[in-house]
Design a protein that fits this description.
0% strand
Length: 99
């Protein structure tokens, strides 16, 4: 493996990398490797899988936060039922106007 030294890195960039790594529970070095791998599109299948899992967990956490700590269920069924009811109302309104 190669070694890379980066000189004259802006303090703000260094701090942002430190915070980004901390949020993921990674070292700055690992986070920098991931950022560079992503930027050069040479991420390993394991890294892509880990990122996908992190994104999925982040989405689940956001859904829980938006729904009182519980993952919503039946959302698609509810949406379809609402849309069908709306279509029935629109159809009834149209029939009244046509008379």
């Amino acid at each position: 493996m190669a070694t890379l030294t980066i000189r004259n890195l802006a303090d703000a960039t260094h701090q942002a990398l430190r915070e980004r790594a901390a949020k993921k529970g990674l070292s700055m070095e690992e986070e920098a490797r991931q950022v560079l791998a992503e930027a050069t599109q040479t991420a390993s299948p394991d890294l892509r899988r880990r990122r996908a899992m992190e994104a999925a967990e982040s989405l689940r956490a956001a859904l829980r936060a938006a729904n009182g700590g519980v993952l919503p269920t039946g959302v698609v069924d509810e949406f379809i039922a609402e849309r069908r009811a709306e279509a029935a109302r629109e159809e009834a309104e149209y029939a009244v106007r046509e008379r």
